[in-house]
Amino acid sequence: GQQLNQSPQSMFIQEGEDVSMNCTSSSIFNTWLWYKQDPGEGPVLLIALYKAGELTSNGRLTAQFGITRKDSFLNISASIPSDVGIYFCAGQEETSGSRLTFGEGTQLTVNP
Amino acid sequence: DTAVSQTPKYLVTQMGNDKSIKCEQNLGHDTMYWYKQDSKKFLKIMFSYNNKELIINETVPNRFSPKSPDKAHLNLHINSLELGDSAVYFCASSRGQGWDNEQFFGPGTRLTVL
Asked: What count of other Cβ atoms lies within 10 Å of the Cβ of residue B22?
């Protein structure tokens, strides 16, 4: 089935630094979503993108839906310790209805 | 108020046993899902129901049987548990089954099969 390539797999940064992660796919997606998962919890939706080229912000987070509809990135600015967690991209293909395909996740560690 | 809740949070059991995990959502959503997250944190969809009707059934052993008594509940029953079933199982819901419907996840059930 469709796979989403998410990179990097892990990041270790200092508090205050900016972070960038991205996802690519081999097929066209109608929707790109970015989730964050804290330890022992379920994924929580951060940003949803529905149009090619769309750039959306949520506080210190910014995400973009790639113009080719095959990629998306998430930026976190001025990271803080509570940004620690696993960030997942997820997408819905044109023909898959509500079926979500997830990336492999980016484990973010922020050192105070 | 918890939007998507699951019980139990932790489940430890012996190989060969049968167990159930329950999920409830109070969001008024029509569509519910079960996902499996393996030890490498990879999330994969297992099943989806829309208004109590099965709409997605991935390649999952038939030892796994979902049941939706009403559109607010989706339970997962697992027969003859195997070691490889150990994982975290997440329930999720969305307003509908279109591509523009965001999915909301429960807190997960960590299943350990000994």
From this structure: 16
Dihedral-angle region of residue B88 (phi above 0 means left; psi in -120 to 50 means alpha; beta otherwise): beta
Residue B44, min C-alpha distance to chain A (Å): 7
- In the DSSP assignment, the letter for residue A83 is G
Q: What does the buried/exposed string (b/e) look like for B101-114 if buried means 16 or more CB atoms within 10 Å of the residue's CB? A: bebbbbbbbbbebe
Q: What is the pLDDT along chain B (114 residues), one digit of tens a residue?
A: 669 999 999 999 999 999 999 999 999 999 999 999 999 899 999 999 988 888 888 878 999 999 999 999 999 999 999 999 999 999 999 988 776 778 899 999 999 999
Q: How is residue A43 written in tokens? A: 């994924």
Closest Cα of chain A to B33: distance in Å?
A: 9
Shortest CA gap B82–chain A (Å): 23
> What are the two backbone dihedrals, phi and then psi, of residue B84, each rounded to the nearest 5 degrees?
-70, -5
ω into B66 cis (within 30 of 0)? no
**Interface list for chain B against chain A, based on CB atoms closer than 8 Å:** 4, 31, 33, 40-45, 48, 55-56, 90, 92, 94, 96-108
Longest Cα pair distance anywhere in chain B, in angstroms?
41
Amino acid at site B99:
W
Provide the token pair at B27: 């969001």
